[in-house]
C-alpha cells in the first residue's frame, strides 16, 4: 500500500491537529527511547529506527479519523477532543508502522519510502559492526521485534482510560481500534495464505483477492480510522452506517489503485517498484482477471507466460513488461480502472446522502477520497 502521491499533510489537514499529532508521536517516542535506554543503551537505537521509519508518511489514516470526527461534530476541534483524536491518530500511525515492518519482511521488500527497509538496514548494521551469525537473519529478527514494540505502544496510545473526554465515547473508539488491529493482522494472514494457494473458501481467485483487500486494507486504511473518529464524537448509527459504506468503497478503490501502480505507475513518484507485485507473485484482482481472461480465450502462450514469470524474483525487465502487456491486452487493467472510478463515484454519493454531517468535514473526506483513488496521468485505458 502506498499513499506517497497524496497531497502533503499541511494542505489537507487542519494545522492544529497536524501539529498536535506530531507532538504526541514525538513525546511518545522520546519517552520510549528513555525507557529502552534505561534497560540497555543499545536498545535505544530501536526507537531511532522507528522514528526514521515514520518519516515520509502522509498521515492518511489519522487524517481520515480526524476528518470523520470533524464531519460528525465541530466539537472535534475542542482542545480535549483534539488531543484524544491526536492520540488515536498516533496509535493508528504506530500500528501501521508495525504492519509495514512485518509486511516488508514477509514480502522481502528491499526498500520503504525510498530508504532501505528496516530488516535490510539492520542486516547492513550487522555487517558493518562485524557481528557474529547471519546478517539477514539478524535483520529479520530486529524488524519483528520493532514491529511488536510499535504495536504495543500503539495500544497504549489508544488506551481509553488515558484519553480525555467522555469515557463511553473513548471506550467505543478504543474498541474500533482493537478491531482494526485484529482485522489487519488476520488480513495479513489471509494474504500470505492466498499467496501459497491455501485460501480456498472464496469462490475463485478474484473473490479471494477481494477478501484480502477487505480485511488487510479496507479495515485499517479507511474503515476503522473513520469509525474511530465517528465513535469519538458519539455519532449515531445512521451516520456510522453511511460512513461505513463510504469507507468500504474508498478503501477497496484505494487498494485496487495501489495494485495498478505496480503496472502503470512511476516508481520514483509512487514509491512502489514497477513490476514488484509480479515478481512477488501477489495474487491481486488484476492478476486474477488477467489469468481468467487468458483462460477464457484459450491463450496458452499467455497462461504459460504467467506461470513462468509471476512469483519469480529473478524475472528480468523484458519478462515483467510482457506480463504487463498481457494485463493490458486482456482488458484487466482497464476493467480494474473502471471499478475504481465506479467505487469512487459510489462513495461520493454515499457521503452526499449522509444525514447530519458538517459541510466542512464532509468536504474534507471527499478530498481525501478523491486523492486516494485518483487515476489522473496513469496509462489505464489503452
From TrEMBL:
Cofactor names: Mg(2+)
Q: Which residues cross the membrane?
A: none
What keywords were assigned to this record? Answer: Magnesium, Metal-binding, Transferase
What PROSITE patterns does the annotation carry?
POLYPRENYL_SYNTHASE_1 (PS00723)
Q: Which domain of life is it from?
A: Bacteria
Q: Which Pfam families match?
A: polyprenyl_synt
- What family is it from? Belongs to the FPP/GGPP synthase family.
In Swiss-Prot or TrEMBL terms, this protein is called: Polyprenyl synthetase family protein
Q: Please name the source species.
A: Brachybacterium kimchii
Amino acid at each position: 500500500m502506498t499513499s506517497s502521491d497524496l497531497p502533503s499533510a499541511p494542505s489537507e489537514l487542519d494545522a492544529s491537529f497536524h501539529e498536535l499529532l506530531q507532538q504526541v508521536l514525538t513525546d511518545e517516542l522520546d519517552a520510549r527511547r528513555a525507557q529502552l535506554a534505561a534497560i540497555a543503551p543499545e536498545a535505544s537505537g530501536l526507537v531511532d529506527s522507528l522514528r526514521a521509519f515514520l518519516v515520509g508518511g502522509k498521515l492518511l489514516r489519522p487524517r481520515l479519523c480526524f476528518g470523520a470526527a470533524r464531519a460528525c461534530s465541530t466539537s472535534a476541534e475542542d482542545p480535549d477532543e483534539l488531543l484524544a483524536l491526536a492520540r488515536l491518530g498516533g496509535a493508528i500511525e504506530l500500528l501501521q508502522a508495525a504492519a509495514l515492518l512485518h509486511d516488508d519482511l514477509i514480502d522481502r521488500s528491499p526498500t520503504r519510502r525510498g530508504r532501505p527497509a528496516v530488516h535490510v538496514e539492520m542486516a547492513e548494521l550487522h555487517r558493518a559492526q562485524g557481528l557474529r551469525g547471519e546478517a539477514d537473519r539478524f535483520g529479520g529478527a530486529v524488524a519483528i521485534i520493532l514491529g511488536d514494540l510499535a504495536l504495543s505502544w500503539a495500544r497504549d496510545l489508544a488506551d481509553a482510560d488515558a484519553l480525555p473526554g467522555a469515557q463511553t465515547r473513548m471506550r467505543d473508539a478504543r474498541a474500533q481500534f482493537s478491531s482494526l488491529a485484529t482485522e489487519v493482522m488476520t488480513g495479513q494472514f489471509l494474504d500470505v495464505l492466498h499467496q501459497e494457494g491455501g485460501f480456498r473458501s472464496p469462490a475463485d481467485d478474484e473473490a479471494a483477492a477481494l477478501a484480502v483487500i477487505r480485511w488487510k486494507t479496507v479495515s485499517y486504511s479507511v474503515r476503522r480510522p473513520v469509525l474511530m473518529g465517528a465513535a469519538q464524537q458519539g455519532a449515531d448509527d445512521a451516520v456510522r452506517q453511511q460512513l461505513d459504506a463510504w469507507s468500504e468503497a474508498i478503501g477497496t478503490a484505494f487498494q485496487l489503485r495501489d495494485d495498478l501502480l505496480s503496472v502503470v505507475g512511476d516508481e520514483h513518484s509512487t514509491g512502489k517498484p514497477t513490476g514488484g507485485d509480479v515478481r512477488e507473485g501477489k495474487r491481486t484482482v488484476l492478476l486474477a482477471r488477467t489469468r481468467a481472461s487468458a483462460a477464457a480465450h484459450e491463450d496458452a502462450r499467455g497462461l504459460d507466460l504467467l506461470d513462468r514469470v509471476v512469483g519469480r524474483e529473478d524475472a528480468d525487465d523484458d519478462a515483467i513488461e510482457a506480463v504487463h502487456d498481457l494485463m493490458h491486452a486482456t482488458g484487466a487493467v482497464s476493467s480494474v480502472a473502471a471499478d475504481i472510478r465506479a467505487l469512487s463515484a459510489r462513495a461520493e454519493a454515499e457521503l452526499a446522502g449522509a444525514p447530519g454531517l458538517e459541510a466542512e468535514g464532509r468536504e474534507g473526506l471527499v478530498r481525501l477520497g478523491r486523492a486516494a483513488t485518483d487515476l489522473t496521468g496513469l496509462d489505464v485505458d489503452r
